[in-house]
Amino acid sequence: MLHRVHVGSTSGGDSCAGHSRARSRAATSPIGGATIPGVRYGSSQRAPAKIVTSIAAAAIMARPASPSRAAPRPATIGAMSGPHLRDFNRIVFFTGAGMSAESGVPTYRGAGGIWKEYDYRRYACQDAFNRDPAAVWEFHNYRRRLVAACAPNLGHRIIARAGQREARVTVVTQNIDGLHALSGSRDILELHGNLWRVRCDTCGVKQQDSHEPREQLRCDGCGGWWRPDIVWFGDFLDDATLHSAKQLISSCDLFVSVGTSAVVYPAAQLPEYARAGKALRVEINPDETPASDLYDVHLRGPATEMLTRLADGDPHLLDPA
Ligand code: OAD
User: Fold this and answer.
1) Do residues 234 and 3 touch, judged by C-beta distance below 8 A?
2) Residue 96 Cα, ligand 1 centroid: separation in angstroms?
3) Which atom of ligand 1 is nearest to the CA of 261?
4) pTM of the model
5) Which residues pair with residue 90 across a beta bridge?
6) Of the candidates 34, 39, 68, 318, which lies 20 to 30 Å from 295 by C-alpha distance?
7) Are the CB atoms for 195 and 176 separated by under 8 Å?
8) What's the pLDDT tens digit per position in 261-283?
9) CA separation (Å) from 314 to 94, 196, 211?
10) Whose CA is nearest to atom 37 of ligand 1?
């Protein structure tokens, strides 16, 4: 089974994304759910050359086909109080770029999004790296610089503290910034790799590296190019990581999606496993997403505020006043 990263879109025409789309599985996403009323359930641094592209806009519009919409789930939770983290034993937080937005890490899409300014076909796919590894490294060093200036936010800390209690808490993240680990979360599945790890493109050896910028670009052992150990468009996700994510999501009792546009597959398919497993599903996002109908509860607002709401005043989860 192929698990290449792709946007659930049919637009474009670029070699990188076009190639991955052609070989990836069709994205089917039967979605259904109910919005419960109340709680609105419901730099100055030098950067690589900017290339304006229409890809990001295409990605925003990308929505997987949803041929069979499931019947809405009944609203069974107290409308005003909302779900609280302490009431669940097996929790999965499924996070995207919006999780780190309040830390200052740019998201990919929407206003100020990375793919609005940088063409991922030139900076975030293997073809681009094969053509011009130095340019791809320049872009990733720029990203290292941006992320290095950011710290975990209150939302990261609430998630980390939830995992230090009795409940089994796993973070399944699309983020490569490492902020979940920095905030103290221990059980983390990084679907798209990590900006602070490199891999030899020739011999495959891996190395943690927090240098900013990364200057050593050739492998000591074989002389091949180091590349960021992150999953680019058209790359395969690590099978074991994806398998673990599916298992944990299938068996959790609370699934909280935080700050993802739900357009990049196969990650965007994972909430389906929470539905199949009958978990209560909460979407935290200021905006509706193509997957919103899949959730029982919609918390429309920024991650820190909405996670604070899920913490419900629990002093073990919140920063001291
Ligand atoms: P996106 O940039 O596509 O989406 C960010 C989401 O966060 C949007 O839905 C925003 O509405 C939401 N958001 C913004 N600010 C927020 C806040 N303060 N609190 C909560 N939500 C907020 O990012 P991802 O969905 O993570 O992959 O993108 C998925 C993948 O596409 C990334 O992992 C990356 C990218 O291309 C690769 O590079 C392979």
Assistant:
1) no
2) 5
3) 9
4) 0.83
5) 168
6) 318
7) yes
8) 999 999 999 999 999 999 999 99
9) 21, 33, 37
10) 232
Domains (range + CATH), the chain: 3-96+238-318 (3.40.50)
Token pair in block for residue 7: 């946007």
CB 177 within 8 A of CB 99: no
Kindly report the protein residue whose alpha carbon is nearest to atom 39 of ligand 1.
Answer: 232
Q: What are 206's strand-pairing partners?
A: 199
Q: Residues 189-246: pLDDT tens digits?
A: 999 999 999 999 999 999 999 999 999 999 999 999 999 999 999 999 999 999 999 9
Q: Can you read off the two tokens belonging to residue 250?
A: 């299938």
Tokens read off for 314? 């629990």
Q: Where do we find the tokens 């936010």?
A: 153
CB burial of residue 95 (10 Å; 0-12, 13-18, 19+): buried
Q: Is 116 in the pocket of ligand 1 (CB under 6 A)?
A: no
Roughly how many angstroms between the first and final C-alpha of the chain, as a whole number?
49
Burial readout 98-125 (b: 16 or more C-beta within 10 A, e: otherwise): bbbbbbebbbbbbeebbbbebbbbbbbb
Write down how long the chain is: 321
* Encoded tokens for 134: 């130095």
Burial status of residue 22 (CB atoms within 10 A of its CB: 0-12, 13-18, 19 or more): exposed
Q: Is 156 a catalytic residue?
A: no
The residue written with tokens 């209560």 in the block is 280
